[in-house]
Every structure is written in structure tokens, then in C-alpha cells.
Amino acid sequence: MSQHLREKTESQIPAENQGHYDTLLDNETTRITFHRIRPGEQSGWHIHDTNYVGYHIEAAKLQYERADGSVGEIQSEPGKSFFYDVGEGFEHNVTNIGVTDMVALEIEYKKG
Fold first, then answer.
1. What is d(CA 97, CA 105) in angstroms, rounded to the nearest whole number?
2. CATH of domain 3-109
3. Backbone phi, then psi, for 61, in 5-degree steps?
4. 45, 9 Cβ separation under 8 angstroms
5. pLDDT of 103
6. Helices in the chain by DSSP H: which ranges?
7. Which of 25, 19, 5 is nearest to 110 (CA)?
8. How far is the C-alpha of 35 from the C-alpha of 18, rounded, in Å?
9. CA proximity to 23, closest of 38, 10, 35
10. Most exposed residue of 21, 27, 30, 74, measured as fewest CB within 10 angstroms of its CB?
11. Cα angle at 109 between 20 and 62, to 5 degrees?
12. Could you tell me if 62 and 94 are in contact, meaning their C-beta atoms sit under 8 angstroms apart?
């Protein structure tokens, strides 16, 4: 992992601007987390190094930033699932730029 990635991940986002997540399950093969990011909040810089499924429970308009400088927007839809093949991994931060909470589950498949 590059120094650039570690610097992004270690950067701090004020607590009042950071969303919330709970770990529901974490064992040898799988991690399931529940996420809520309110309008204006961010996920915080983090790295995905395992493939995962995102399941959106509530709709929200999101902006993502990647450590490579790319930026994009996603309109999540309730009841939709997306599989993410992370390859060698990636680092990003997500900001809720909409007017509704982003509520989702992430199901990560740990590499063996």
C-alpha cells in the first residue's frame, strides 16, 4: 500500500461530520456492517481490500472520492444490491450530498 493511501486513511474528519456504522458480524470469512450517513456527513477515508456487496435500505444521493483523485456521484435505491470486486483494493470517502439518510448494509467476503 502506498504512503499516499495511508495518509488519506489516517486523516481525520470531525466527529460531527462523520456517519455511523456498527459491525453486526465479523468472523473468519465474512464481515457485515450497518451504515447510516446523514445529509452532509461523510464515511471517512477507508480502504476496501475485500470484495463486498452493498445493500441499500434507503435512497440517498452520494458523492465518492477516491485516493487517485477521481470523484463521482451515486443515487442509491432502496432494495438494490451491488457487488464490488475490489481487485487490489481501493481507498475512498463517501459524502451524503442528498436530503435523506443513506442507510445500507455492507457484506464483505474476506480473502483466505
1. 19
2. 2.60.120.10
3. -100, 120
4. yes
5. 96
6. 3-10
7. 25
8. 11
9. 35
10. 27
11. 40
12. yes
Neighbours of 92 (CB within 10 A): 18
Q: What residue spans define the domains of the chain?
A: 3-109
Identify the pLDDT of residue 30: 95
Q: Which amino acid is at 89?
A: G
Between residues 5 and 102, which one has the greater pLDDT? 102
CB atoms within 10 A of CB 38: 16
**pLDDT tens, residue by residue, 62-90:** 999 998 899 999 998 999 999 999 988 88
Which of the pair, 45 or 98, is modelled with greater confidence?
A: 98
From 26, 10, 111, select the one nearest 1 (Cα to Cα): 10
As a whole number of angstroms, the distance between CA 102 and CA 95 comes to 10
